[in-house]
Structures are given as structure tokens and as C-alpha cells.
Amino acid sequence: MDELVVIGMGHIGGSVAAAAMANSLFVRVIGVETDAAHRSRAAERRLADRVTASLTGLTNAGLVVVAVPPSVTADVVEQALIACPRAVVTDTCGVKAPVLARVRTRSPHGARFVAAHPMAGTAASGPDSADAKLFEGRTVVIAVDALTDMSAVAAVEGLWRAIGATVVREDPMVHDRAMAMVSHVPHALAFSLVAAAAGPDGDDASYARTARLAGPSFESATRVAASDPALWTELFLSNRDALMESLASFRVALAALEADVLSGNSAALTDRLARLRRFKTGERPGKDAS
After folding, report:
1. What pLDDT sits at residue 141?
2. What is the mean pLDDT of the chain?
3. Segment 188-214 mean pLDDT
4. Which CATH number fits domain 175-281: 1.10.3660.10, 3.40.50.10840, 1.10.10.10, 3.65.10.10?
């Protein structure tokens, strides 16, 4: 296949490049990274055949993956569409509708853009966290709108399937509303749970006194609070309306649980928890869970 260009050689972009290299999917894999330290480290780890600082001279690219922060994703997509005139350009941003809207309205080359979101990643960042197996068994959402070129979609889907992912297609707005509930709210709750554990003093010592007694449930619930604050600030704000709706739904659900606890009605509380457990486990009502 043609050259693959990956812009942004951090956790996600570096993992895409590493997976393409490991599976020998392209004639060449070229990383583009503006941060000098990250560029050097990506080269040292051989995440790509070559790691450069800019898109200059990359006109042979057949596919470009943009893996940069949400606030600059649309701008970098537009730059890639111009710099790589033969390439299908895709992204990895966790919010789809704003990026698509901007590219569609501002770029005359927008038909070559396919919006994508891999549902993978950890709280780690930078090229040292790149993992060629990161996407194996994970879902990648392709956000399809009325202007999406289906031949370009096929090229992007082919990449993701070749590195082990399962691909689904979804409407951009449906994607963003779903992400607010299944990704953005959990991160917001993890950050908030850490804040609650720190107590009213909100300092390191207060948090340490509580966290030293924590077991697996607290660790699991707060794992993503170790994520990049700048990235999650951008994601929260770029999907603000959907996030606010989802947080409101969460508050309603929490208030209902609080009411059952305050009432002291153990039967009502058990029924509520059992119903919610069934949602999570898929068990049918009346099935013996032992």
C-alpha cells in the first residue's frame, strides 16, 4: 500500500504507527511530531520508518491519520488535506460532530476526510506509551454524514481492521451523545470522586489519608482520573451540551438511589440494585446469579 502518515506520535498516534509497522501494511510509515522530545523518542522506539517535524514533502501519502488534541484536530485535518493531495485523511478525536462540521464548511477537499474514533487507550501519554497491540479487539467508530465518501471510508476501515479493531458506523451526533455518557461522564465522575476523597481541605495529605485505605473498587472507579487534564478539558468543552445532558441524567439516577437509602426501605433498594445489575450483566429477571 501507499505511505501512511501519522500526525501526532503520542499514545494513540504512536500506537497506530507501531501497529502499521508491525503488520507491514504500508510501503512506508512516516510520523509527524512537532514536539522535539517526542519526535526523538518516537524515532528511538522506531514507531515509524521516519519521524519528521512537518508535512512538507509528504505528497505520496495514501492515508493520513491525525492524532492531535481536539482543539486543533480540524485545523490539522485541513492542513493534511492540502499537503497530501492524494490521501484519504482521518482522525482519532473523541468528539466528531464539531470536527466534521468545521472541515465540511471550510475545506474544499473535505470529501477526502473520514471522521473516526478508536475506543481504546489508557491514562498514559506520549510516545513511550505507544503499543502496537492497543487496538486489538477494540471498537473504532466511523462517523458517517451525508457528504462522506464511501470509498474513503473503505480505506480507513481497512486500516483499523488490519490492526485488529472492530469497525462500526454511526451518525456523528449520535456518537457524541453516546460518548458523553460512556466516556466523558465516567471521566468526570472519576475526577470528582478523587475530589470527594480529598475532602473539604482538598490537599494531598487529605487525599492520602483516605486513599491509603482504598481497595480495588476505588482504584477501578478512579483509574481514569490519571488522564491528561489538558486533553480532558478540551473534550469536556467540545462536547459540553451532550455532557451536561448526561450529567443531568446521572444526577437523576443518583438522587433516586439516595432516596431509597434515606427511606431505609431495603426491599426497594435491593430491587433497584438488582435491576441495575441485570442491565450490566445481561441476566434475565429471576435467573439464579449464584
Report:
1. 97
2. 94
3. 91
4. 1.10.3660.10
CATH superfamily, with its number, for domain 3-170: NAD(P)-binding Rossmann-like Domain (3.40.50.720)
Q: What pLDDT digit, counting tens, does each position of 139-151 carry?
A: 999 999 989 999 9
* One-letter-per-residue 3-state SS of the chain: CCEEEEECCCHHHHHHHHHHHHCCCCCCEEEECCCHHHHHHHHHCCCCCEEECCCCCCCCEEEEEECCCHHHHHHHHHHHHHHCCCCEEEECCCCCHHHHHHHHHHCCCHHHEEEEEECCCCCCCCHHHCCCCCCCCCEEEEECCCCCCHHHHHHHHHHHHHCCCEEEEECHHHHHHHHHHHHHHHHHHHHHHHHHHHCCCCCHHHHHHHHCCCCHHHHHHHHHHHCCHHHHHHHHHHCHHHHHHHHHHHHHHHHHHHHHHHHCCHHHHHHHHHHHHHHHHCCCCCCCCC
User: What is the structure's pLDDT at 121?
Assistant: 84
- Which tens digits make up the pLDDT trace of 103-156? 999 999 999 999 999 999 887 889 999 999 999 999 999 999 989 999 999 999
Domain segments of the chain as ranges: 3-170, 175-281
How many C-alpha atoms does 32 have within 13 Å on its Cβ side? 22
pLDDT at 290 over 60: no
Amino acid symbol at 195? A
